[in-house]
Automatic annotation (TrEMBL):
Catalytic reaction annotation: D-ribulose 5-phosphate = (2S)-2-hydroxy-3-oxobutyl phosphate + formate + H(+)
Record InterPro entries: DHBP_synth_RibB-like_a/b_dom, DHBP_synthase_RibB
Descriptive protein name: 3,4-dihydroxy-2-butanone 4-phosphate synthase
Pfam family, one: DHBP_synthase
Organism: Undibacterium terreum
Amino acid sequence: MQEGRPVLLMDDFDRENEADLILAAEKITTETMAMLIRDCSGIVCLCLTDTKLQQLDLPPMVSNNGSRYGTAFTVTIEAVQGVTTGVSAADRVTTIMAAIADDAQPQDLARPGHVFPLRAVPGGVLSRRGHTEGSVDLALMAGLKPAAVLCELTNPDGSMSKGDDIVAYAKKHDLVMLTIDELATYRLQQAA
């Protein structure tokens, strides 16, 4: 993550059994954003802490979250300056950089937009075994800001990548692949 390369993070087999491509938010480039848009679902999410979401005044997307795993989307965002339609890879990178800036203010972001912020639960994967928390955990472990970008890996036909397809993608692109379980185990070992 320190090098700005994506990491494949798989969730638990009894959960979605899918993988997300994850990058440290501060390291994302137009090229890696294009990879997310091309090889993944296109729903590019920015994983942030409560502190950052409060700084940006980003409320939950809905008041009653009925999603199966409680994925904590906020309202979507777009940078106010430096973007055109907001949907291009370059525009999404501009939006992410505006959101993660240390001095970012609510007025720096328009609502709605083409980037989907997610609230990471405090405590990371030890509190919630989700990609959102795993992404922020990995960024912190890399010594970076607690902010990460993720997108769900899909197959060329648009179906969700699973099992062997994920392994083949990791090999093809020479990417590190790990699971939420491995990350949680590592965190527990480090805390002991």
